[in-house]
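Journal club prep, notes for RB
We'll compare a predicted complex against what the paper describes. Inputs for the S-adenosylmethionine case:
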Amino acid sequence: MIRVAGRYASEVGLADRISMVSGNAFEIEWPHDQDAVLISYLMYCVDGGLIPDLMRRAYDSHRPGGRLFVHDYMIEDDGGCPPLAALWLVSSLLADPDAVLLTPGTLSERAREAGFAEVGVHELIPEITKALTATKPR
Ligand SMILES: C[S@@+](CC[C@H](N)C(=O)[O-])C[C@H]1O[C@@H](n2cnc3c(N)ncnc32)[C@H](O)[C@@H]1O
């Protein structure tokens, strides 16, 4: 991922403004004072019990006023299930048998528990993914 991201950064002339850090997100120290944190396609494939840890790390990483973006496969709060989102979520069990079905409601709750405000969830790729947005209060 770092190699791919580094290539994209170079292609658009941003290589000198972006630094890359590799490692296990649950073990490394995340950078501090960040304007924004994007977590894309990660929460669906990790042990659901570790999602609060990811949210807390993201919160600690932001400057006050910073914005969180979580982009991932999600089903609906009522269990309604676009087939493609459901398929991807089921496939996540191959990566970690303790992965959970993500919903806007549960993910929003985890974000608020971590301290985020202005939490909202919007459809991103129709019937497949949604994006949660939230703000670290000033
Ligand atoms: C489906 S890919 C998503 C890649 C990219 N974020 C995107 O949106 O296209 C999931 C990525 O999460 C990474 N990953 C899984 N568990 C991780 C962990 N504990 N710490 C850091 N990265 C992890 C995998 O190596 C993989 O690159």
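Talking point for the session: The chain has a mean pLDDT of 94.
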